[in-house]
Predict the structure.
Amino acid sequence: MSVLIKGGRVVTAVDDTVADVFVDGERISLIGESLDVAADRVVDASGKLVLPGAIDPHTHLDMPFGGTTTIDDFTSGHAAAARGGTTTHVDFCIQQPGTSFGDSLAMWHAKREGKALIDNGFHIAVTDLKEGGTLEELATLPDRGITSYKLFMAYKGALMVDDETLFRTMEVAAETGALVMVHAENGDAIDVLVKKALAAGNTDPVWHARTRPPETEGEATNRAIQLARVAGCPLYVVHVSCKESVDPIMRARELGWDVWGETCTQYFLVDESFLERPDFEGAKFVYTPPPRAKPNQDVLWNAVRTDVLSAISTDHCAFLWDGQKTIGRDDFSKIPNGGPGIEDRLRLIHHFGVSDGRITLNRMVELLATNPAKLFGLYPRKGTIAVGADADLVIFDPEKPYTITAAAQQSRTDYNLYEGTEVVGDVETVLLRGNVIVDGGEVVAEPGSGQFVKRARFGEQLRANVSAG
Ligand code: URP
Ligand code: ZN
Ligand code: ZN
């Protein structure tokens, strides 16, 4: 199968030119002006943007969490991703209690088998080095294409690890060339605050934010940075939500340390007041770290513009409001933490980031595709438009109005964080390795067509490619 995409505005992290893109099989074969080649399919992209398929480095599909399981599996989650222009994601394989990393990975591979519509890799989330997982086994995972180790510094009694586990994992990463990812919040302090709030009779969703103050995120971010420095490993801080966490990342990057951070779409657009919506609607916005006070939104836009933060993910962790979020109707600490978002990232960042003048189109591509590819060992196969790269391409109509609603989404969840938001710009056609998976806004991919991607180690070459502070 060959596809000729004609006359689009081809945008990468660095280039912006009107050109034709010729796809032969799974790869991009030619890029040039008025290409004279025959193709099985010709797509007229005049007036449209041609972008690299977006990469989401932070998702939770079919994940047991908070006493239930996330509602999107590797088919519905991938349909949502594809419709939103995401062609690759890296999901979290959570080490199950008392289980080896290999057994947990086998479980996660089984979840995607025969179901995947887009490509994906896995991070390994280390939860226990005493029973089940060993440091020796951890060290072997990069050879299997698992080149990032994730640790939760919060969720006490569930996923949280102590500093010894964090530091020992960091030491392994320093040896193996893996990237350490942290969910940075002080889980012990939060646990005390949650217990005090409940004892005082405070059970509403807004107490999710009130018991996780920004300082607890700032403290853990700084702790992780300093420990990574001692261990000598590269560090990536996930879902940065506030100034208290941005500041230590900025300082580390100014010093040239191997520290990177991401934020997520929701932290630009949802603030803590959403948690106060009546009739338990606030529970829709219970994700962690929580929505913050509004001034943090400008801090985050500034951080992604100035390369203090290097990626925008979604942390897609979807639950039904009716039947899953409602588990915590009488106790905010029982509301499953997480929100949907994999479908809306590109259109929201294009509208509120690019069209509103906060970031350039090139920077949007860098934040949504190129930097995630570089940081997570997918570049240059993915994350850019270049001869020889996978033909993961998005044809995006920057003039098309779109109203975000749960009714129209691919995700199985029964709500949308951005319900009713009107944007201008939407995904029209998506190619994954040369195959059309979204056609005129319709998802046409077949379950099983997505591939597992073995990722490269976080190496010296990649460090040079992703600009340090
Ligand atoms: O609330 C969230 N973010 N749920 C998913 C797990 C995590 O902390 O990333
Ligand atoms: Zn997290
Ligand atoms: Zn997450």
